[in-house]
Every structure is written in C-alpha cells, then in structure tokens.
Amino acid sequence: MTPTITVDIGTTSIKLCAFDGDGSLLAAHRADTPTMTDGVGAVYDVAVLLAEIRGFVDGLDAATRRSVQRVAIAGVGESGGLVAPDLTLMSPMILWHDHRGAGLLAPLSDDDRARVYAVTGLPVNANYALSKVAWALGHADGDTDQALWLNVSEYVAARLTGRRWAEPSLASRTMALDLGTRRWSREVCALLRVDPGVFPILRPAAQGVAMDPETAREWGLDEVTVHVAGHDHMVGGVGADLQPGEMLDSTGTTEGILTLLDRPRRDAATAATRVAGGLACDGERYTLFASIPTGGSAFATLRTLLDREAADLVALVADAHRAWLAGDVDLDRLPLVLPRFRGGPPPEKDASARGAIAGIQTDTTSLELVLACFLGMVREFVDTWALFDRPLDRVKVIGPASANPLWLQLKADALGVPVSAAGFPEIVSRGAQALAHGVRLPWSASRPHDVQPDPRRTALIAAWGERTAARWDHLKRMPS
C-alpha cells in the first residue's frame, strides 16, 4: 500500500485519518458531522464538511502531505443530492434518515413492493435514496437534464477530482440498482417516474480518479488518486477481513449487522424479513445487512435517564459486568427494556418506534437498569440476526462496543459463539485504505481480543427469554 488519507463520513461524526504505506496510523481527527435543516428535513452543510477535510490535510506536516498518494472516502449509505456538471448542488445534500420522499412511496402496491425487493434486494423504505431522488427532481431549481445523484462520499470525491461517479456498495443502497445485473433498474426507477440516467456510472473502490491538479496544489499534495471506498459498514467488513460464516457487528450511533453471500437473496421469504441485500465493496460477493437504530447512542440515553456523568456510567457498566461474570445477577429481578430509543429494526423498520421499560420495582437499582438495557439491546440484536437465517461461527465487533466488556460478554453468551473485538479504533478507515489498493488486511492486524461464551450463562439467557417472551412480544407490538 501507499500513504493514504481516509475520510469516514458517519451519522454523527467525521473520522479523518492519515496512514503510512504499512497501514500504521500517523494522524487522526474526529469532528461532528456538519448538518442543518433546510426547512424540510436534515441536510449536510457541505461547505463545513469540505472545510473539515481541508483543515485536516493542512494540519499534517509537509512531509506527510507530500507522501500521500491516495485519498479514500467512505460514508453512510443512503444520503445524497443532485449534482450539476459544474459540481454545484441542484438540491440539498440530504441525510440518510431524512424521509422527505416518503409520500412518493405511499402509492406503491404490494406487488410493486415485492417487485422492488426482487430486483434491488431492498424493502421499500424512505431511507433509501430513490424517493429522495424523486423528491429532489420535483423540487430542483433549473434544468436537471445533466444532473447526477451522488452520495455524500461520491460528492466529496467529485469536488476533489471534477468527475462524477458512483461506487457499487453505495449504489446498492439507492433502491435503484438491479443486484443481478449490477445496472440501474429502469423498471424500479419508473415506479417513481425517475429516469435512471440521473444515476452515474459505477466505479469500484480500487479504481480511483486523479485529483484535480489545481486542488492538489492548493492542498499541498502531489499526484494523488481519489477513491470512493463505499458504504461505511461494508468498508468496515473489509477492514475486519470478514469471511463467510462470520457476522460483522459494526457499532456506532446505530448498530449494523452484516454478513457475506456468494449470491443475492431476493426471494419472498427474505423479503418478508426486510433485511437489506447489497453489493460487497470488493470482489463479486453480496451482502445481507440490517441496521438497528439504537447502538452506541444508548449510552447517551442512559446518561440522561439516570442523570449520570460519563465516568459514573462507565463505572456502573463495569460493576454490571463484574456481577454478570460472578453469577450475581438475578435475571428475574431485572426490568425488561425494549431499547428502541431511535426507532425499530427489521422486520418492522419503524422509524417512529420508541423504547419501553416494563417490570420496574420499588427497589430496582441503577445497576440493574443498566444491565437490563444492555441485555435488551442484545436481545434485539439476536432477534435481528435470526432474520438472516445463516450459520454463525464468529462475531467480529468494530466501533465503540469493542471497548464495552459487558456488551461483548452478553453478546457472546446470548449467541453462544465467540465474539472477537477490534483493538484498533478505526477499522472503517483501515478498510478504506485497503480498498483503495485492492488488498485485504488480516484481522490480526486489528489487535483483536476474543470473548468466549459461557454455556451456563447461555442457558440462563435462553430460559429467561422463554419466561419473558410474552411480555417482550407485547412491548414490540405497542403502537408507536
């Protein structure tokens, strides 16, 4: 590999890294993802986004800047905007969770929805880009004949190179790509009266484009190639060297569950689960993916709920972990927590869903509530994985959960398989560098530590799950 700057555009933060040719981290910076409202919903402040990236590059010493040969960009999957040939925006750069196009999906029949899944591998949902594209075309100022829809990562690449293109894993999150042919689907686009010509050519992650020479000079860079690495969770799968039979547990604000397939699954039974199919970032494989809206954000929810400082909550989590390992937890004393603090996962995929707590007693302690919350998150995690109907040998965890021993142990015990957690913090960024060079790095390079399941605790969780199944199902059926 060669020295690389990576950009990872997440839901709540941007991660910027500089790596040397061996993949060693030279510099890193994290900034809040710049967003704002346009009066309709949530959009990116693209000027601030580009300034953050430029500021990181400016902060590198001159020798490091001059050594950089590639820029690799990863990011969230369903965001985007209409971009003119001169790279001006003809629509807002819309965030992935913005549902401004939802009304355009409402008229679709059950047969239409089944056909969308059979072609694209995606359940009809306003998160995906196609409804945003239709909305943007209907609200654009001026002629959109030459405008192209770009994901936010693709837009950053376009601003650096002067060229517009799409990356396959991001394209497969638009609800407009035929997974079988790997081409834009005229049939599906027609359901929303969108001309598929609004989507750009596909370019794999390893095929970069030269940075605009004037931009390179302004940024203090020599000859640099710009690569769109792909959808952040899928790029994390490359960074984790994900293999068939393994699950990637990609934790951040949300929690992404990913596994690899040799061929796409678009049958009616899979469609009923509303698990998302897609294209892997490297090679010819396919993916199955589900997003659990409540991931690392649960920590902030607990802080607010318990009115605790971060350090105090970390100590409570550590105490709960020790109690769990020591066998000092009476599961029947714990409240039942449905952790849908930011919406629900498949098969409902209800963005308006909210959490619930049942079984609070007069003497319920804060430690029990913390343990119950993480146990509820793990239960929802296991329920979501069951939708995949795949064998499982090992879970690879990246992101904040890697540093949460309670969360890791509960997952290992609930699933009954080993959980291997990355010790290196920026797996998505490392995956982006690898993709830009067409290579894979071994999982051992991520300094993982393994957490083994305990058969006794696995049995305890299973029995508790049976005892509380009726209440759990009742909580999930509550109207939002």
UniProtKB/TrEMBL annotation:
Protein name (database record): Sugar (Pentulose or hexulose) kinase
CDD domains per UniProt: ASKHA_NBD_FGGY_FK (cd07773)
Gene3D superfamilies the UniProt entry points to: 3.30.420.40
Keywords, in A-Z order: Carbohydrate metabolism, Kinase, Transferase, Xylose metabolism
Domain Carbohydrate kinase FGGY N-terminal: 5-239
DNA-binding listed as a keyword: no
One Gene Ontology molecular-function label: kinase activity
KW Nucleus (keyword) present: no
Domain Carbohydrate kinase FGGY C-terminal: residue ranges: 250-436
Family assignment from sequence similarity: Belongs to the FGGY kinase family.
Biological process, per Gene Ontology: D-xylose metabolic process
